[in-house]
Write a structure and sequence with these properties.
Blueprint (H helix, E strand, L loop, with lengths): L35 H80 L1
Length: about 120
């Protein structure tokens, strides 16, 4: 999607997610006398359990980061709404004043025309 030259510096305060290497954590003495097929299944379950724990932690961390970012976005939206509503009110006041001043000028011209 982007060329390398288009990449910007990563300015995130969150670290990138890196997948660790998983190794069987079954002590060798527990696998003595176990046939190869069963040994493979047990070691695979050990790896799957580690990967599952890592994924759960990554999902929880990601959720916390998303909630933090969402909170900041909501705060920025509140500030934006306050700023934009201020300018809308100010423009309304200016337009009202200019209309009133225009009517006053028209009334003055009419009164001068009647007295002359």
């Amino acid at each position: 999607m982007f060329d390398d030259k288009d990449k910007k510096k990563d300015e995130s305060s969150y670290p990138p997610l890196e997948r660790p290497q998983f190794h069987s954590n079954i002590p060798p003495h527990l696998l003595q006398g176990v046939d190869d097929q069963t040994k493979y299944v047990i070691e695979s379950l050990s790896l799957i359990d580690q990967q599952n724990q890592w994924l759960i932690k990554a999902a929880i961390d990601t959720n916390e980061q998303v909630r933090h970012t969402n909170g900041r976005v909501k705060n920025l939206e509140k500030v934006r709404d306050k700023i934009t509503s201020f300018w809308v009110v100010l423009m309304g006041i200016i337009l009202s004043l200019s209309t009133i001043l225009g009517l006053i000028a028209l009334i003055i011209k009419m009164v001068k025309g009647v007295w002359n």
